[in-house]
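TA notes, week 10

Several of you asked for a full example with nothing omitted. So below is the full record: structure tokens for the whole chain, then the designed sequence directly under it. When grading your own attempts, check the secondary structure regions first.
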């Protein structure tokens, strides 16, 4: 990797991803919160049944990415893929990775726990047997949310007293669950309070209200849930 330039007011970065929410929502929220100027390159698929991906594959090997994939971030000479690596890169520039050893450990731990939840949810939503598998998923969801509730405890943010990048991931994962099962957060009061606290952040609130916010579709058009634009 070449030297990383500072993310500043004068430097616009490029975020490339499919024209869906997917893995990019937390990144978009973090870019907005940090006031990082950015442009998006949205890639689209062709119509059913083939869903042609050439909009992406025609560019894939021309961007100088070490591991060509979506999402990607181009920031001067820095070229990154992997959604959590992108989040960490932005967060480090703004001291949002935790300041103490405990905060950093909590962020590391929750980052991976949330990725497990995200992948499990995506596997369900893309599964041809979605309707058969949905009841079992909903049955185990309260226990997963209770684990997150215990981990958060009385803290305002998941790593501690200060906001970190992992809160952006947590918000995205929890909101997707709330979209899927609207009453799922009625039990854990601290998770509801976390959601309200996050949504009240000035720049986050402005983005969520804006026409630029890509809340849906959550997944690709082949998904059994979350594939529609609302």
């Amino acid at each position: 990797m070449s030297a990383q330039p500072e993310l500043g007011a004068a430097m616009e970065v490029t975020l490339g991803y499919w024209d869906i929410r997917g893995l990019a929502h937390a990144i978009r929220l973090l870019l907005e919160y940090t006031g990082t100027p950015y442009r998006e390159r949205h890639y689209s698929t062709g119509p059913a049944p083939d869903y042609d991906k050439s909009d992406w594959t025609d560019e894939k090997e021309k961007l100088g990415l070490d591991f060509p994939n979506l999402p990607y971030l181009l920031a001067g000479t820095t070229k990154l893929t992997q959604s959590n690596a992108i989040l960490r890169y932005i967060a480090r520039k703004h001291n949002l990775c935790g300041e103490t050893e405990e905060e950093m450990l909590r962020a590391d731990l929750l980052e991976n726990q949330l990725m497990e939840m995200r992948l499990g949810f995506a596997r369900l939503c893309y599964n041809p047997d979605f309707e058969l598998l949905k009841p079992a998923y909903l049955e185990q969801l309260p226990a997963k949310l209770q684990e997150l509730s215990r981990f958060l405890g009385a803290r305002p943010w998941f790593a501690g007293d200060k906001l970190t990048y992992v809160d952006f991931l947590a918000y995205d994962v929890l909101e997707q669950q709330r979209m899927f099962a609207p009453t799922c957060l009625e039990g854990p009061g601290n998770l509801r309070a976390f959601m309200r606290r996050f949504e009240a952040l000035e720049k986050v609130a402005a983005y969520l209200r804006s026409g630029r916010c890509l809340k849906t579709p959550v997944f690709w058009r082949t998904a059994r849930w979350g594939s529609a634009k609302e």
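The first strand starts at residue 13 and ends at 18. Use that as a sanity check on your answer.
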